[in-house]
Structures are given as structure tokens and as C-alpha cells.
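In this supplementary section we document a worked example of the pipeline. Step one takes a protein sequence of length 558 as its only input; no multiple sequence alignment statistics are reported here. Step two produces a three-dimensional model, which step three serialises into C-alpha cells for compact storage. The input and output of this example are shown verbatim.
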Amino acid sequence: MDLYLPKDELLFVPLGGSGEIGMNLNLYGYDDQWLMVDMGVSFGEEGLPGVDVVMPDPTFIEERKDKLLGLVLTHAHEDHLGAVPYLWPRLKCPIYATPFAAEFLKAKLAETDFADQVPIHVIELGGRFKKGPFDIEFVTMTHSILEPNALAIRTPKGLVVHTGDWKFDPEPQIGEASDVKKLEALGDEGVMALICDSTNVFSEGKAGSEGDVAKNLSKLFAETPQGRIAVACFATNVARLQSIVEAAHENNRCVGLAGRSLNRVTEAARAVGYLTSYPNLLTDEDAMEVPKDQVLLICTGSQGEPRAAMSRIAKGDHPTVQLDPGDTVVFSAREIPGNEKSIGYIQNLLIRRGIRVITARDEPIHVSGHPGRQDLARMYQLTRPKILVPVHGETRHLCEQAALGAECQIPEQVIPHDGTVIRLSPGSAHVIGVAESGVLCLDGGRLLKRDSDTIRNRNRIVWNGVMFVTVVLNQFGEMVGEPMITAPSLFDEVGDDVRLDHFAAEIGNRVDQLNDDEVLDDAAVILAIRQSLRRPVRQRLGKRPMIEVHLVRVNEQG
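The serialised model returned by step three reads:
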């Protein structure tokens, strides 16, 4: 049944990013028209074998795509635009973004076969445009990427400020500082609702400044005069890239880039006017020709990604870059929760090879791109919203920010989860329904629902294995020869206590018990074979494997 959506109400519907950090997708609805903010991915999670990327299920808005006015991107991080290459063909809406995000997205779409079909509209920093009942204004913020934006969304029912990812950084190194005056002006205008990033709500104080990181990196490089230096960081953190380059140059080191995404980001940044002062960045191959104490490599792979440059360097199988004992690797990035093991694995490989490893735990060489509690309180003071809706966080983050908002005298707080339909106006803000939501898994080149039979069966195989059984019956339902059984995921070779002929005997006994009608019914025979194996397999192997039966019927000529 279709969800009842009154027309003369302003609605907020998150389909991703509320209840988890990542895969953000948010909808604003008014008068049966919809505006989408962000469309991101997250990385594979435990329980999804073979899946590297997940994203929100857009079915709710896909069913209303003729009412979808457009997609507005707050910035170019993967968790805010990474799903566009996968989901845009299902929606086919115009996209609005500031220059860097637009350029970055175009580079990603170039790998698809529909890139020239996507209408991307570039909105200058601080720009403003209208779509249906929505009047959208970009508000410059700071974050760990170029051109992050909050959105001031004016509607017939009131003004909403959607923060995107943000922090207050007086020294961002590249780009403009957060437009505090604009935020304060919006507060004076009257902010009905603040939809706000919750990522660092448990962190006291303020987010640190990129300017401090730049100074600390220069000092660290000065204290490392010998050997090559390699720095692992997020490729999209262009401010960090600039900080590293400047710190390297201050210490008489040239800079090379190792990693495809680094080259993609720097090309996009240069295309819109950033990093133009650094035309002489080297390829990784050229950087290896420079004397060790005169070079610094910036590498992808700060999260231990197996195919990234730093991982391959640590394993010694990078086609170009080699590090030796006495060289130094600097991890200038935070550990994303869930990546600790893979990061530790790479760091241990490096240390075993005699390479010095320095992390943000050792030196002040990283700051977050998200607001701490003091920053959040300042945002509340500037915008003075009547309603706070925390997003971009797990449930514990959302609840904590709601509590902080209450402490700061925001009159109303509504805690969302993916799929909640929240009425912002008229009346008090509250949940009025639940929209269809879920998670899609990128499995090779196709998208599967997280709760699909394919994913469920794959999990079962991972934990319990799979057994393949081939049984041949003649026209009378009698077995021809012995069943063929293989179970490579359950045991390597047959031992004295686990014998396949025992399982074959169980199958034969069960098939012999079928009556004349059952033995001629394929479904009944397959079910009987599975039933005959479940108990003995569990008793002998301690597993409940998936049992796949291939039934063959032949006509024997007498």
C-alpha cells in the first residue's frame, strides 16, 4: 500500500545515513514534489561476503521519480555522491553541485556508458537557485574536502538548514573558511529546522585546524632527514594534500603521487582552479628516481584497503614504489571504525621490514572534518533552530546530539532512522510514517538487496559450507549407480570418520522409502535427498551446509 503523504506539509525522509555513518540519501517533500540531498555509498560490512560497496535502496523515490525535481550534492565524498553512478539510471534526475563536486562526479561518470546523459548543473560557491517549491542556497563550510556546503532550503512552510558534513576551521589551508556570517543571517531570518551532522558528537571541544596539521607535518619531516618518506591519507582531502606538499617543499623534498584516486582528485581540483601552484608533482615512477632524502610520496591506502598503493607497498608487490629499512611511513588520517584490523595488518608488515611507522596517535598530524560538541553548540547559537534533526550517525550519535540540542534550548528534537517520514511543518515536528528503505549491495556489476536470497545463501555457505549432490534415477524412479557427492568447502580429504559412502547410503535408503507418486515428482525427490543428509552431516561434521541437489532422469533401454 502506498504511504499517505499529505500535500500541504513539509516532509523530511532519510533513506540512508540515519542509523549509520555513510551512504547518505535524504529527501525533502512538499506539495507532492521532492528534492534529494546527496546519494552516497558505504563500504562492505561484516556479513556481506564478496560485497565491497553498499548504498541506500531508492525504491521509495524511484516510485515517485516523476515528482523528483533534482539531486543536490553537498560535497564530493563517496558517502555523499558515490552512489550516483549506480542509482542515477533508476531516477534520471538533474544534479546540482559546486564546481569541484561536479568535476569529481564527471570523472566518476566517465567510466559509465551513460555519462553524457546526466544533466549536471554547476552552482558557484554561495549560489542560489529554485526548483519547484524549494529555494536552495549553498552556504560555504569547511570539512576534509574541497567545497563542502550546507544548504539553506527555503520552502512555503519555513527555512531548513541542512549542514552536510562540516566543521569550523579558521585556517583551512585551501578554499574558504565557513561562512559564519551567512549562518548567523539565516538565524536572523528564522530557521525552522536544522538537519545536522552527528559524527563527532561524543568529542569534546572543537574540531582541530588543518593549519595546525600543516605546521606539525613540516616539523615531523624536518626531524626525518634520512630515507624516503611516504604519507598515507585520504585522496579527497585536498587541504591535506596541499599541507603535505608544502611541508615537503619546506624540507627540500619533491613530491610524487602513488594511487589512481590521488591522480583523479588532483586533476579535478586543478580543473576548477585549485593546486595550480604545484605543477611539478611527480608520478610514482619518476619519484623513485629521486635520491631518497629528497623525495616524499603521497599514497592512497590509509585505511588498509588491499588494492590501494600503501597496501601493495607494504606487501612488496607495488609495480613501481619500493620502501627500504630506515624509510618512514606517516599515516595522516583517522581510522574509520571497522578498519582497525586491516590498518594494523599493513602497519605491522611495514614495521617487520624495518620501516618506521608514525600515526596520529604518535604525532598531531590529523584533525577530523566533523564538528565536536563545542562546534555543534556554536552552530545552534548561530542558526537558532526550532527543530533539530540529527543525521549522519549511528543511533547512539543521533540520540546524543538530540540530548545536546535539548541542553542548548532547541525546543524540539526528532531522532530519525532510515525510512522515517518526519513532518517538519505545520505543527510540531514528529514521525508520521515509514517509507520503504533498505540497503543495496554492489555484487560485481549488479545490485542486490541486503536481505536477498543470494546474500543470505552466501552467508550460509561462508559459515556452514555447501554440499553438491547428483542423483540419477531411471524411468521407474530407481537409482542408477551411486550418488555423486562433493563438499570441497567442508573437508579437504575423506578421513576414516567422515566417509562419503555413508552419506550416499543415507540418500539411497531415503529414496527407496518414497512411494510411487513421490518418486516421479522431482520436487519430492530433491526434498527427500536434502532431508536424508541434514542429520548425518550435522552429526559427523558439526555443520548445517547448503545442500544443492542435481536430479537427472534417464530412460534405460532393456
